[in-house]
Design a protein that fits this description.
This protein is an alpha/beta fold. The chain contains twelve helices and nine strands. Helix content is 46%, strand content 18%.
């Protein structure tokens, strides 16, 4: 099995690099500074203890070069960001399956509309990975996993192979029978923490202590939308997510929050915007999400002006 990595940022760099270290055939599609550094130096991973590893990898800006040895790409881990106006799947080799890793409840459906449900495996990433430079990723203490499933909940041999590879590489992950529960549970945590953190310009520790009620309401609105969309979320999903939030490092932030704070293109619309759109489709009101989203969009627009 040859694995392609599309998007060599925090997630693609960490998971792809660890798979290479474990001996798997992994190729990286990259460009610009990232591609130059991958070719000249390699991929740099910095673990939770500060230990630095430099990993030689095979990288190019096109799949033809990456498969010139006659071996095709079986599955692509799509670790791009879902940014406004950007295609989250700019290049996928013909016939390859796609594992989506985006923090968005919409992206798997967009991918399926393009490649077919049988070729799309929705995935859920957990972990605090920071893109600290071109082809350089730092991992902060906490969870580290990639759960994967299928649209209809059926088992899939290729998904099983990817999960086995993740375990061999020391990366957590499971093939879940209902991946949608995990997708919405992840969105409840990361989308809301990122948006509220961006609005408060504060890390997770401040949010869970000083504005916990607002955070809880955002969790509850996300739960209501997910249930109305037919997702079988656990009855205690809000309290469980709050407990998970309490267990994280005080200074942790999401990549969306960091991008927003730095004035970069960000995934606010793909994350909170997606939940709001899904809510509108099933006639569920989301007043707190609307307020936070509107305030962030307004502030962003004012900065541009």
């Amino acid at each position: 099995m040859r694995i392609g990595v599309l998007g060599v940022g925090a997630v693609g760099g960490w998971f792809g690099g660890r798979l290479v270290q474990a001996g798997y055939d992994v190729v990286f599609l990259a460009r610009g500074e990232t591609l130059t550094r991958l070719r000249e130096v390699g991929l740099t991973l910095i673990d939770e203890h500060g230990e630095r590893s430099i990993i030689p990898v095979k990288a190019a800006d096109n799949w033809d070069e990456l498969t010139a040895d006659g071996i095709g790409v079986d599955v692509v881990i799509a670790a791009t960001k879902a940014l406004p106006g950007n295609d989250p799947f700019p290049q996928v080799p013909a016939g390859a399956a796609v594992v989506t890793t985006h923090n968005s409840v919409e992206i798997p459906y967009l991918a399926a509309g393009r490649f077919g449900e049988d070729k799309v495996f929705p995935g859920v990433i957990r972990g605090f990975f920071i893109h600290t430079g071109p082809a350089e990723v730092t991992f902060r203490p906490g969870p580290m996993s990639l759960n994967i499933g299928t649209f209809d909940g059926s088992t899939n041999d290729m998904v099983g192979e990817v999960i086995e590879a993740l375990h061999t590489a020391g990366l957590g992950g499971e093939q879940l029978p209902d991946i949608w529960v995990d997708i919405w549970a992840k969105a409840m945590f990361v989308a809301n923490l990122g948006a509220l953190g961006a609005l408060a310009d504060s890390p997770i520790g401040y949010l869970r202590s000083e504005i916990r009620d607002s955070l809880t309401r955002m969790f509850e609105e996300t739960e209501a939308v997910g249930r109305a969309c037919g997702v079988a979320l656990p009855e205690d999903i809000v309290s469980r997510t709050l407990a998970f939030t309490d267990a994280q490092g005080y200074d942790n932030t999401s990549s969306m929050q960091r991008d927003y704070t730095e004035g970069l293109a960000n995934e606010l619309d793909a994350q909170i915007g997606a939940i709001r759109r899904m809510g509108q489709k099933v006639s569920v009101e989301t007043p707190t999400l609307d307020l936070v989203y509107g305030a962030l969009v307004g502030r962003q627009q004012n900065h541009k002006d």
